[in-house]
Amino acid sequence: MSVEIREAIAHAVERLEAAGVPDEALAEYVVRKRVLFVPRAPVMVPVGRVWPLGVVLLGRDGSLHATGKITRAVPAGYPGYQSPGVETRRGYRAAAFAGDFVEGDTVNFDTTAIDLDGVDNTSTPVFLADGRARVRWNPTHPGESVALDSYLAERVGLLIG
User: Fold this and answer.
1) What does the alpha-carbon distance between residue 127 and residue 135 come to, in Å, rounded to a whole number?
2) What's the whole-model pTM score?
3) Helix (H) or strand (E) holding 26
4) What is the mean pLDDT for each group of 10 consecutive residues in the chain (161 residues)?
């Protein structure tokens, strides 16, 4: 089964690269240790480059990740203390800006890698049903899914335009 999945992914990567579709950064959010009892700000560390395809992120290396959180690598600005959510997002922008990214780059983080050899039916948007790889659009409606190859072809077509 993983051969079918890998072929669909390889075809999608080829189409995206041939069309020159820009990709986005994939990062890991790292809470740094204190130095001499002084807290250091979190930072995002680059992990790779991906294309956003709805509920999954497609890596240039052929990997798949479940979509997580997203921010931009821009200066965070000053605290406004408007709401906890606003301040959390400001902290994410600051961590991305402190990372090794081009200013303005879109950064995806807090994602879950999808093991293509051990696709299961519970924890990721990609699962097996009737011997075929499928993509679950909405985790609350597991019956609503589409074949992985069709999903990738449609999403790549949207990015290529």
Assistant:
1) 6
2) 0.88
3) strand 24-30
4) 84 97 96 85 96 96 95 88 87 95 96 82 77 82 85 96 81
Among 68, 28, 67, which Cα is nearest to 45's? 28
Structure tokens of 80?
């406004």
CA angle 156, 139, 134 (to 5 degrees): 45
Pair 121, 128: CB distance under 8 Å:
yes
User: What amino acid is encoded at 159 in this protein?
Assistant: L
Q: Where are the domains of the chain?
A: 2-160
Alpha-carbon span 141 to 15, nearest angstrom: 30
Q: What is the pLDDT of residue 120?
A: 64
Query: To which H or E segment does residue 161 belong?
Result: none
**Rounded distance between C-alpha atoms, residue 117 and residue 132, angstroms:** 13
